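Notes continue from the previous slide.

Worked example: a multi-chain complex. Inputs as given:
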Amino acid sequence: DVKVTQSSRYLVKRTGEKVFLECVQDMDHENMFWYRQDPGLGLRLIYFSYDVKMKEKGDIPEGYSVSREKKERFSLILESASTNQTSMYLCASSLGAKGEQFFGPGTRLTVL
Amino acid sequence: QKEVEQDPGPLSVPEGAIVSLNCTYSNSAFQYFMWYRQYSRKGPELLMYTYSSGNKEDGRFTAQVDKSSKYISLFIRDSQPSDSATYLCAMHSGGSNYKLTFGKGTLLTVNP
């Protein structure tokens, strides 16, 4: 079974702090994704990566950056957290062009 | 017109009912169709994966795709309280397009 793990289930940060969210997958998947999920807005793609050191902007990249130094690990960085970044953050991975994405358990981030 | 439309519900049914969940889409290039189930405060899990038009059955779940009408459905037979969750449809066109396009999800409650 594919396993996608995220570094924290719940996180509370202060406005202006730098926040790192980490995601690790154990199935040698090429593609990795970061989403945020908010009530009424559904899943929105922040960034994705189809190879090590490669990254592509999703639909809402503003205020976020990413890093993929190793195939299994994809990090989401909030350079200066703001209250409107309070959300559920979900990481996913997929293999090739088949499209099936496998999700981690999510990190519920609260920015005060 | 949004690319994928999904009735947000909420949908409340008695235990044992047949449930029908639906999505419509506008992009005729979509070829791969997925249904995800998401329990509260958890990540989405892949439930059904289908390619092109037709039906696919897995236990109590049946996925249907009608590409001519740009309409997909998920049927749940003999629904159980454990089926209470948000159901998300997702689709993509294949090839080098790694991104999924998601519906916003339908919240289902199955009452004992």
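Summary box: The interface with chain B takes residues 4, 31, 33, 40-43, 45, 48, 50, 58, 90, 94, 97-106, 108 of chain A (CB under 8 Å). Chain A has a mean pLDDT of 94.
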